[in-house]
Amino acid sequence: MSERTATVTRETAETSIECTLKIDGSGAATIDTGIGFFDHMLTSFAKHGLFDLEIECDGDLEIDDHHTVEDVAIVLGEAFDDALGDRSGIVRYADRRVPLDEAVASAVVDVSGRPRCYFDGRFSQESIGEFTSDMARHFGESLAMNTGLTLHLEVTGENAHHEVEALFKALTRCLDDATRIDDRREGTPSTKGTL
User: Fold this and answer.
1) In this structure, how many other beta carbons lie within 10 angstroms of the beta carbon of residue 18?
2) How far is Cα 40 from Cα 14, in angstroms, rounded to an integer?
3) What is the CATH number of domain 5-179?
4) What pTM value is reported for the model?
5) Are 20 and 100 contacting, i.e. CB atoms less than 8 angstroms apart?
6) Fewest CB within 10 A of the end CB: N or C in the chain?
């Protein structure tokens, strides 16, 4: 199997980002976005998806967290898209439910090349530290649009920290499952012959 890795950079007036992703990794992470809770979520994303992930982001946090979270998701999505190549041999579909205390989240994904994101749920508190809770939904949306995923996310609970963390864990476990190589499969997993 070829090494499925990618490095993507993004420079705008709002953010400066470098991201390196290894899909078939060990869960190692070096993350610095300037938002403590977001760093925690991305570290968890790497750990539980067994993706090796390095992200360095300098964003306009004096405004708020929106541009940083959105642009990191864009760059991470581009890295997944690049590292997956033509998607030959991948499982393609997956779904996961993950609990965290009173919260439970689910993610269902098709690595389809047709970007869509559907979200059902709400977050019990508006923010977690410097992280706006609804940015978890927007992270999923931006990741889906830039990886080429059809993604359905759902969350319930009573504590936003638990809700967002369960959502990130469900998403990463789902992506780990869907992007794995199925040794029985040859070529792209589509009757069209392409994704």
Assistant:
1) 15
2) 22
3) 3.30.230.40
4) 0.95
5) no
6) N
